[in-house]
Predict the structure.
Amino acid sequence: MFTIMLIEDDQTLFEEIKERLTQWSYLVAGIGDFGNVLQEFTEIKPDLVIIDIQLPKFDGFHWCRMIRTHSNVPIIFLSSRDHPTDMVMSMQLGADDFVQKPFHFDVLIAKIQAVLRRVYNYSIDQTLEMKTWCDAAVDFVKGTLTNENGTIELTKNEIFILKVLIERKNEIVSREEIITSLWDDERFVSDNTLTVNVNRLRKRIAEIGLVDVIETKVGQGYMAKEKQL
């Protein structure tokens, strides 16, 4: 049974979401002190975090940053604001998905299920637990990339996108294929979200010297090269 930490200061909405999630057999934990979210997160050790952007004391972006310094637990943002920058910011901080308020509960449930399947089930494929790519060791279970320049830890979205591309290295993988693989149902995700995730992945792997190894094929998709030129 999965434990979901719901960081939402609107008590009425919190109870509504908790009731629906409980019906789906999820354990739901709330926040007692919105100024001490990180400590409560550490104590609860949830399998997934749902966090509102507008919170008392510190906003959701702040707590996402703090959580990401300690954990790669999947994070879904909630927002009542309609600024496109909110979604971009959440993805840049390493969030796994974004839900705009007001939302249909079936959409939220679908997103939660997709994230949990992606994060906790994909590593069942034992043939891709470890792989060498561009002289770097890729650990799909731990979510790390290691070469002579060091080790980086990738978010669940980043490692999954890399997995999809490496499985078909030197081939063009369409944006639609990646979106379908990553989110299960492309109706629930924007095209811009994928762009943000791929750009963040490129930036992260460049930290260990892997530059220009994920190529954009305009109007087609992306391709992971076998060797760095």
